[in-house]
Design goal:
Blueprint: E1 7-8, H1 18-25, E2 29-32, E3 35-45, E4 73-78, E5 82-88, E6 97-105, E7 114-115, H2 117-124, E8 141-145, E9 154-156, E10 174-176
Antiparallel strand pairs: 1-8, 2-3, 2-8, 3-6, 3-10, 4-5, 5-6, 6-7, 9-10
The protein binds a DNA duplex (12 and 12 nucleotides) through residues 43, 45, 52-54, 57, 60-63, 76-82, 84, 86, 99, 101, 116-119, 158-162, 164-165, 188.
Length: 194
Amino acid sequence: VSGGLLRRVGREPLLGEPLAVAEWLLGKLLVVEGRIGRITEVEAYGGRDDPASHAYRGESARNRTMFAAGGHLYVYLAYGLHHCANVACGPSGEPAAVLVRSVAPGPLPGGVGAVGPGRVCRVLGIDRGHDGRDLVEDADVHLADDGFEPATVLSGPRVGLSPRSGAAAHWPWRLWVPASPDVPRLTARGSVLQ
DNA sequence: TGGTAGATTGGC
DNA sequence: CCAATCTACCAG
């Protein structure tokens, strides 16, 4: 199931299309200053072709990191309260990112779990101070691979989007790994669902 | 330069 | 169901 050994990820897999990178990210470990979460639910966002994307109307101060090369951490503040963490993907200059919606406890001490993008940032300690960090090169904030491969990946429509996004709100660009003994899924309240 | 809606969450 | 809480973005 899990190889045990943690290895940092390379840049290459993060330079692809958002949906491909989203699938690749499932099962990987997000390591933030000693806390570890296994990514179990993600949502892909594109650029000018995606009405639901922050980058739909071009670059701004907030979404600048979406334009960085794949592997950079894009953090924004939602509703004035909650931080949301994304992994930028694609080549530099091409805006795209994958929102991390859920994590399960990682395999080492420091493992944490959460369901919901705001809670993910809370348990991992991510805030806007981490915006722009490079998950491939950074010492304290990075992506790791322990060899785990999800046996099953499910998909469905993205959530939380306004009707203004039109049909894009219904694109099946949300991907997740079903709960299993290896990947415990937590409820919103934090209890283990198995 | 002001008004508004938002890739959410928790409480009533 | 709705308030919290703030700010990016766009209208004027």
